[in-house]
Amino acid sequence: MSTSRRQFIKKSAAFAIPVIIPAAARGADGAVAPSNRLTVAAVGWGMQGPGNTQSTMSLPNAQVVAVCDLDKNHLSQATDAVNGFYKNQDCKAYTDYKEMFARKDIDAVTLAVPDHWHALVATAAAKAGKHIWGEKPLARTIAEQQAIVKAVEDHKVIWQTGSWQRSVDNFTKAVELVRGGYIGQIKEVQVGLPSGHNDFAGTAKSNTVTEPPANLDYEKWVGPSAMVPYIEARVHRNWRWHYNFGGGQLLDWIGHHCDIAHWGMDMDNGGPSEVECEGEFPPADAMWNTCTKYRGELKYPKDIKMTIAGGHSDIAGGTKWIGTEGWIHVDRGAFEASDPSWRGFRVLPEKMRKADIYRSTNHFKNWVDCALSGKPTITPVRTAHHSATPGHLCLISMLSKSKIQWDVAKEEILNNAEASKLLNRPYRSPYTQADFA
Ligand SMILES: NC(=O)c1ccc[n+]([C@@H]2O[C@H](COP(=O)([O-])OP(=O)(O)OC[C@H]3O[C@@H](n4cnc5c(N)ncnc54)[C@H](O)[C@@H]3O)[C@@H](O)[C@H]2O)c1
Prior knowledge:
This protein has twelve helices and 15 strands. The chain is α/β, with parallel strands linked by helices. The protein has two domains: about 5-165, Rossmann fold; about 165-200 and about 240-355 and about 380-420, Dihydrodipicolinate Reductase, domain 2 (2-Layer Sandwich), CATH 3.30.360.10. A hairpin with a 4-residue loop joins strand 14 and strand 15. The two termini are about 30 Å apart. Nicotinamide-adenine-dinucleotide binds next to loops.
């Protein structure tokens, strides 16, 4: 891409000038001309990366030009998939994301790395001026989330979070009804998440210490986390069941269902003032040590009470808002409400629309269009931060065995030094949080 076009995209990100692509600028075959496409690089080719990349490649105004992974097998699968899609050999492969981000012809990046890497990779991408698709939860700790928010906002890049439920009609309809006042004033919100552990990689039986395979740079994969011996069952996909890398079901899902809860509560930039959570944990030295069952009670402004739970049969999976005049429950493929007629339509009829909400029907298209136009996405970085924070606070409450008082504006835990320590985690040398700046 020419320097002038990059400057234009950066400028448009800063000043929110919509880019209009005139028909004359399109290729003769009807495709968007290369000079008007967002050039994208993908980091992480595991469970989520391939789908994210496929969705990006399917958009006419985006083109994937490079991929990065620490696992050489995953990396060659990634290059093959991208080159296979475009029927050429143009996709470049990297094992070092910083080297890839240094390329001036790359406008944007999609990140699908494990949670313990989110902060370093996302802040580096923002500093390099790349627009970012980042995954939920925003990061492994609240302090890392704050660093990502700062980097993205300081460098004025466009961010979309992988909380794609915001771009699905079922969830949009539910939120529009709640925000439109159809259930009266919200009194209670229930956020139901999974419990236990899922053997996503089918590696649960590979639970003994071995040498890492030659195709994986395990030292770098562990990255800023504490070095622990290689056990296949807690690396690819299943890392989320060990606190060294992820946050268990609670943090894996909070960025989906609490994100929808906040959207309905009109609290994208809000949060709880008090959090108390109890849970059941395997021994800390177990192969998978994340909480298997949990229940948190949270106090929100306007006298709203929220319950976040996994493994409790009285809290259904998904999001339920209970108001003074009715209730709505929504989940993937499920919608129930106090007024059964609301089930009857896919999207809210025009005449029933009372709330002015952001509408998107394609989360990737929304990101690419916004990266090109400079407009905010449906799930910007600050929203992702607030959507995941209640999950982090529930975990901190469980680990510190205390009720947390949270100052939403200052983003500080009040009068609890032990719990406050859990807002961040130490970084293993040579990785340092100084890199966030
Ligand atoms: N939005 C959704 O619905 C959804 C679904 C699944 C996962 N996710 C999120 O996607 C992210 C990735 O999860 P996953 O299940 O795909 O994990 P995964 O383990 O399957 O894949 C991660 C990939 O990243 C690579 N990697 C790790 N560190 C790297 C680094 N520093 N540089 C380059 N590559 C690196 C790994 O080698 C691996 O190939 C997580 O944050 C997860 O929460 C989101």
